[in-house]
Amino acid sequence: MRTYADNKSMRKRKRGSAKMAPSLICHFIMFKKFVAPAFVLASLLSLGACKRDAASPPPARVQTEARAPQPQSCDDHFVGGQAPRVTNPKLDKAAEPLCFNVFSVLHSGITRTPLWSAEHLQAGNIAAAQELSRENSFHAESRLPAGQRAELADYSRSGYDRGHMAPNGDMPDRDSQRDSFSLANIVPQDGENNRNLWAGIEGAVRKMAKKEGDLYVVTGPAFLGADLKKIGNVLVPTHLYKLVYSPRQRAGAAWFVENTADAKANVIPIPELERIIGINLLPALSDAEKERVLALPEIHVKPSRNRK
Q1: Is residue 164 situated within a structural domain?
Q2: CB of 66 within 8 A of CB of 131?
């Protein structure tokens, strides 16, 4: 049972509470007027930041790589900006350097083929090239004298493929792709060799470039011995080579193969290749630097039904 004393005490507490109410109301109003808007603003900013983070995806590596790289200068195609140098005087006759978008060649007016084709192969080139369909556009090189260049008629019904030295599969755009079909970048190549062993080598180089980020690649023919074949006015190489140099590993090596249907992919050091073909392929490197051998993958070729 509640007593008078209890009621009196309760009335005192109520009066005390009534006295405190204005102060609390005032504080609440101040909080609502100043603190709450700041809190709401901070919350909105935080939400906005979250939305921006969600709306802005991280840089897509594939998209970056698929974009065609900026045009390269001629010197960009070579290690240290130095083009290969012919050391065999016989090869130097009627030799003409030609610069294209992403590769360069040294064309011989004697063989009517390139002596070498050099490219700075980048992962971005390959990603962009994979987005392009192949458009065959073989053509004679108009920058060369008519009496020193190959013509389409030379290859017609010859029994040989028109083999790319700088591959079409490395070309990042249509202009560069068309460049690769210039006959100044082409040699007569055994069809089985071109479509099997050589295609495997080109594919292996592209895989390496994706992993390494970039490679320097020099590709060309070799004309060994005195008994050389001709198709039209074009000499048929006895061998083909593809040199690969990794700037990351500071090492290089080369595949050296016969231009035949049943050829094997032989891997040799750079100095040995240079001695065989009579060209200093990487003049920016010292002899000691060329001795550092890059591990090249083994090329596995499926047996062709046409082989006997």
Answers
A1: yes
A2: yes
Residues 46 and 72 in one domain: no
> In terms of domains, do 9 and 119 share one?
no
**Active-site residue, selected from the candidate residues 77, 107, 164, 239:** 164
164 catalytic residue (yes or no): yes
Answer whether 69's CB lies under 8 Å from 122's CB: yes
Structural domain contains residue 304 = no
Joined tokens for residue 107: 């064309």
Are 28 and 147 in the same domain?
no
Q: Give 20 or 260, the one with higher predicted confidence.
A: 260
Residue 112 has pLDDT above 90, yes or no: yes
**For residue 300, what pLDDT band results from cuts at 50, 70 and 90?**
confident
For the whole model, what pTM was predicted? 0.77
pLDDT in tens, 68-98: 455 678 999 999 999 999 999 999 999 999 9
Judgement on whether residues 81 and 211 belong to the same structural domain of the protein: yes
- Split into its structural domains, the chain has a count of 2
Paired tokens of 30: 């101040």
Task: Return the CATH number at 188.
Answer: 3.40.570.10
Alpha helices, H only, 164-214: 174-180, 191-192, 198-212
Mean pLDDT on 215-231: 97
